[in-house]
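Posting here for the record, re: adenosine monophosphate.
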Amino acid sequence: MKFTDMGLSPEILEGISRLGFETPTPVQAAVIPAILNNSRDLVALAQTGTGKTAAFGLPILQMLNPEIKTPQTLILCPTRELCMQIARDLENFAACARGVRILAVYGGADIKPQLSAMVRGVDIVVATPGRMNDLLRRRRADFSKIKRVVLDEADEMLNMGFEEDLEAILSEVPEGAQTLLFSATMPRQVAAIAKKYMTDPEEITVGTRNAGAENISHEFVVVHAKDRYRALKRLADFYPEMYGIVFCRTRQETQDIADHLGKDGYKAESLHGDLTQQQRDRVMKKFRAREMQMLVATDVAARGLDVNDLTHVINYSLPDDLGSYTHRSGRTGRAGKAGVSIALINMREHHKVKCIEKQLGRKFVQRAVPTGANICEARLIGLMERLSQVSPEPGLIDEILPSLCKSLEGLSREELLRRFASLELQRMLDYYSKEPDINAETVHEAVGHAARKKQAAAGGLVELAMNIGKANRLSPKQLMNLVNVADRNSSVEIGRINITHLLSFFEVPRDAAQGVIDSFSKSLVDFEGRQVSVSLAGAGNPAKRDEKRTAHPYSPKDKNRKGGKNPGHWQK
Ligand code: AMP
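Prediction output follows.
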């Protein structure tokens, strides 16, 4: 279905086309025609991030009557952030329609401007229940012409204790008004509200009831309780592009974790109920501007946050109920993007994962906490990829280049790279050379590149690295040919192949590894004008990679240059 087939007006279509909306999301395809074509009440089960604001917002805007001066639509939602977000979205959808007046009414802000805006006249009120009830009690809101009421994130409003406010507000709404209820989950309380205030509602479910979004990968790692924080740091180090929310259970834990991360040099801050509204706004502004990598939050504080493109949700501790888990994980994987929700659990918490799996109808994948070697290797490969992609501007650098070359005269290309890498990642290499594996149990599922190497080491395979990659347009088939060309006399079995931008990795049986390495150094194989060389991948012999890594080839030569004990300032 297309937006143009739904009966939306040209002004609305123009508004959403400016926002880049091309195809309706499933909830939009189901809900927009339902609202436009009949006045029946509606219950829609949909996650955050599925496009539900436009699903109710577009038809509501279209059906406003310009003759009426008092509010025609009331939208209730749980938090100030969500309230402001919905009002902003509606303004954007209506950017090409004339004169729609939208008012956001929420607590924690001066009530006077809200009161006077209400008196001046509005078409749509978007409100949090507490403040809305306050305005009603002051007799400043005229709800006599309300035609539609939207209850957005109804489960959250009830979780947050707004039941009484909701009941008081709904009793002021004229009979016969259409009620549209949106909720990610359908607990008993929500069903009760639906029963009490709605007449024969049509039920629309997008995805499965109470299920997480399809494009979220649900994962967990198992560590001893004392290693939880260490595991968090490792994940942040392994995924330097991580932009996520770390969920904790209590305000105290939230504050402690954020403080520790801050001290360890990570860009992280906390969001919880003890902060003033001003402090919350400041933290959220920084997080939205990506001046922060991790927002450490309690469930309540993170409700209604509209931040897109989160790569990860980390459950520092798992919540007790499915609703909270669904809301947490639903913060990532929005608008069709892929997202990862990782839980840090201890050995006694497997049952919690099983329980959520059962209710959610989705399987969790057990991951390994990256080891120091995994992290250093991933970061070095990332560094080399950045190096290969940078395109320096001509200018001052060219003037300095001759003297630079002179000062580094005599160093081979390999030696230069080795020194550069060691300089760039010195603190990380120092730190992780002393850090043990903290996985509390063996993991059989692969964690991409890193765990494959671990498996290979355990299973009699070793991984070799070749000095060419995608940048040289190397394909897996060509890699196998090169190995055969170099080592004509033996037909080595090749396991997994992983070609990155600059380097390639492939597995061979342990007893054949040295032969393959030697064959390349003897036979001078050439690929696209580059001499191909092969060495053991990562830190020397992979079988020993998790041992104390004093002999790491990239470890700093100068032992006096201690890098401090925390790796956080490696964050870019
Ligand atoms: P929501 O669930 O309403 O918070 O929407 C989540 C995100 O998806 C928001 O950033 C919207 O701007 C975006 N979005 C909603 N509908 C569409 C659509 N049809 N096409 C592309 N993006 C959309």
